[in-house]
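Hi Y.,

Following your request, here is the sequence exactly as I used it, all 246 residues.
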Amino acid sequence: MTLMKLYAFSDFHLSGDPPTKPMDIFGPAWNNHREKIINAWMETIHPEDTVIMAGDLSWAMHIQDAISDLKMLGTLPGRKIIVRGNHDYWWDTVTKMTRMTDGAFEFIHNSALSVGPIAIAGTRGWIAETSRKLTEADKPIILREEGRLERSLELASKMNPERIIAVLHYPPFDELRNPTHMLQLMTKYHVTDCVYGHIHGAMNFQNLPEELEGIRLHLTSADYLDFKPHLLYDLEDFHAEKDDRE
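Below is the corresponding structure, written out as tokens. Let me know if you'd prefer a different format.
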């Protein structure tokens, strides 16, 4: 039996084909990034695999305009789980997004999902409450996103998983790499891994924490990963661990 692998891959910033908003203005690494993403996905992901996407998939402002990008991703192999990014203005109700993408994606919004022995929880998140850029307008958004994460984690914990992965778009730390309340919530629910995106550019990839409060951190922005999916877990490892315990 072929056992699946769990990957993460995000922040594609697609804008149709050909792109209406080329990303190479942010550096040569983004040249032909749509093709890089598709090719790497096809070379890596198999139908039995699952890919977590931590937001910012399309620049589109409305779901009708995002359909070409979403349907292209939907044709790629594997199960696809998505949380919202700050640029995903096309985001709509889960029912409408599921219908308009022909069920190609599973959207985490006040919900949780299981992938074998792993539970996936998450929300978009927001800037850190200790950020130098924090404004009064940010505070209620942070509280709302913390509430969404806790609801999602509560549902995940009820699945009695072997591990819980939290997925955010924003990182769970501030500019000084101090953990946020979001990360504290994760420790409460015994999260083992946090997948996040949002951060771009070589200068911003410096000194990123690999672990905080015992939680492994995985930045999955496409340019950080050289436009290749990031392997989180091979479910065969869980199968082997179970056999050893038995």
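The radius of gyration is 17 Å.

Thanks again,
Q.
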